Amino acid sequence: MSDLETRVKPEQTVLLLVDMQNDFCHREGALNKAKEIVPYYSVEMIEATIPPMRKTLAAGREVGAKVVFVRSEYSDDIISPVWKRRILGKELRICQPGSWGADWYAVSPLPQETVVVKHRYSPFVNTALETVLRANEIRTLIIVGNATNVCVESTARDAFMRDYDVVVPSDCVATSERSVHEHSLKNIGRHFGSVITSDELLRAWKVTPHDG
Fold first, then answer.
1. What is the pTM of this model?
2. Where in the sequence numbering do the catalytic residues fall?
3. Closest Cα partner for 153 from 184, 194, 179, 118?
């Protein structure tokens, strides 16, 4: 058994899908349309992750890994002045609870799968994620989703600091700019976890790729 196979044994592994929501990922989402506020934002790289992400999700479900979806919600009562200034901008509202923008994009949880709602970049901040991980005796987090350099890397950092093994399939994460994406993956691989491909993960799980 390879090192990767040992680390991603389904019974000890969570597949964590981060921020796959319309406002972040859809061409009609708030961020992609807010060119005057975030002129660099583009969903093209995010769109390219969908086929490998769906295959990875289908494989995770097939082998029995625990699947956890993470969603962001930014209601007025939890957005501090600092967060508004530095993150959202005064005129930009994203992922409002119950809105189309907060709904899932391209992938979505099954009824029995866990959903963790977060209000900051990392799902470890003031959520039930750690309780879910401990209750299920999880040792490894496979992180996919958006954005590589923000919520994905924040999640990887916090998971590593809590002594979880971190695995990031490089073709299942994305951000707006390729250079930023690649720099973030290099940083994760050097300091916080292992950067692999979805095909490597599926081989470790001994799963034949198929669409989700």
1. 0.95
2. 19, 118, 151
3. 184
Backbone angles phi, psi at 130, to 5 degrees: -65, -35
Res 87: pLDDT: 56
pLDDT digits (tens, 9 = 90+) for 52-65: 999 999 999 999 99
Which pLDDT band holds residue 156 (cuts at 50, 70, 90)? Answer: very high
Cα–Cα distance for residue pair 201/164, rounded to 1 Å: 17
CATH number of the domain that 76 lies in? 3.40.50.850
Rounded distance, CA 209 to CA 199, Å? 8
SS (H, E, C) 75-105: CHHHCCHHHHHHHHCCCCCCCCCCCCCCCEC
Does position 37 have pLDDT exceeding 80, yes or no?
Answer: no
Number of domains in the chain: 1
Kindly report the length of the chain.
212
Which pLDDT belongs to residue 131?
98
Q: Which two tokens stand for residue 106?
A: 């391209």
Any domain includes 53: yes
Residues 198/169, Cβ–Cβ less than 8 Å: yes
**Which residues on adjacent β-strands are paired with residue 144?**
17
Q: Which residues of 18-27 are buried (b: 16+ CB within 10 A; e: fewer)?
A: bbbbbbbbbe
Domain that holds residue 33: 3-204
The chain-wide mean pLDDT, for the chain, equals 93
